[in-house]
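quick one
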Amino acid sequence: MKSVKLYDKRFQKIVKLGEGTYGKVYKVKLPDTEKVQYYALKKYASILFGEGMDITALREITILKEISHENIVKIHELFYGMKSLYIAYEYIDCELTKIIQPLNNDELPESLIKGLMLQMLKGLAEIHRYSVLHRDIKPQNLLVNKDGVLKIADFGFARFIASPGREMTAGVISNWYRPPEIFFGAKYYSYGVDIWSTGCIFAEMIKRKPLFQGATEIDILTKIFSLLGIPNESDWPDNNQLDGFKLFSQGDVITIKKYFAGFSEEGIDLLEKMLALNPNKRISASEAIKHPFFTVEPLPCTNEEIAQVVSKLIQ
Ligand code: AMP
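structure w/ adenosine monophosphate:
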């Protein structure tokens, strides 16, 4: 097996997991240890000493060094190579996408959706408790390990929330999971952006396909408005981006209740609260955890039951 050429050559490369603008991620292991331990090793390629550090790396490190929670990925180790920075994360076996993607036409059991949603919301509540916005919640960044524990990963876009009145970057969050206020260029946004993305994933687990899938921003916004309607001044009185909404004309509205007919009443209620068009009306992660959806039958499945699903997918 080929070793990764690293500053310290302890890790052995198993396979490339992914690649982004920052560099590459490999599955690696530490040889010569009694129990084989796997890691996801992220290599930030473009770090030149004296020329500053990659901003995404800096974000991941500062934030993940602060937050320690069962539902948030852990950094195992951090080290420099000649021109690179390496972050070794705990290795997590399965992307949520694998669980969602339909292998057949069966629906995901409601108890499984509840178990996964509850873990997602617990991780998110913890991130928000630290005044951090993740800003890239999507199924590819939610990983589930062999023990059935879901972990939020990839903090490359995360940031501490700006103090009131300070602008934040517009245009964050992958398109299909991006809330309307971000599409319309909001510079003052808050925790609701992550709640919207999580609501989209909730819906995706119910239907087993992305809720607002579209090739262009217009396609996606058209889908959002045909499900939820176009907000008016009474829905969203302090909305200073209403001009953007006015570009769209209101057609027939499907409504969440009709589109998800057959799903539990409590589930639909929670989904409506997560997908409120007005971000100020969106439920918070800590409130969502206490929603009746999680206490009525069928109850959220256990981590052991999630582990059984994962074990079938990673064989
Ligand atoms: P990222 O650039 O962080 O989105 O990572 C690229 C891909 O690497 C992801 O889509 C995951 O499939 C994989 N990945 C990232 N972190 C981990 C991890 N801690 N454990 C396992 N796979 C990971």
